[in-house]
Amino acid sequence: MSTNDHEQLLNDLTDDDPEKRKESAEKLGESENPDVIEPLIKALEDDNPQVRFTSAKSLGKIGDPAIEPLVTILKNEEGNIRRYATLALKDIKS
Asked: Which InterPro entries does the protein's record reference (predicted)?
């Protein structure tokens, strides 16, 4: 993935269109680049449940580098965000 593609996907992660945000989260996860962990963690708070779910799955694809930030979420956040962090951690372990 080129730098321009990467930057465009990061921008799309905050687009008004939820489908574009979901697709961006999916593609960022496929990159398995640890630099996308923080933006994907922020996307766990998205208003759209499909964006949250896809972001969690993408964090699971990134693997070990995502574990520490996800565990921090489990300790500090509440509700849905913790649920999606748990989902991502389960994907990492499998």
From this structure: ARM-like, ARM-type_fold, HEAT_type_2, PBS_lyase_HEAT
CA 5/CA 88 separation, integer angstroms: 24
Give 21-24's long-range contacts (Cβ < 8 A, gap of 24+): 21/46, 21/48, 21/51, 22/48, 22/50, 22/51, 22/54
18 CB burial (10 A radius; 0-12, 13-18, 19+)? middle
**Ordered structural domains, the chain, with CATH:** 3-93 (1.25.10.10)
Q: What is the pLDDT of residues 69-79, one digit of tens each?
A: 889 888 877 78
Q: Look up residue 13 and give its DSSP letter.
A: T
**Cβ distance 44 to 84 under 8 Å?**
yes
Q: Which residues of 64-94 are buried (b: 16+ CB within 10 A; e: fewer)?
A: eebbebbeebeeebeeebbebbebbbebbee
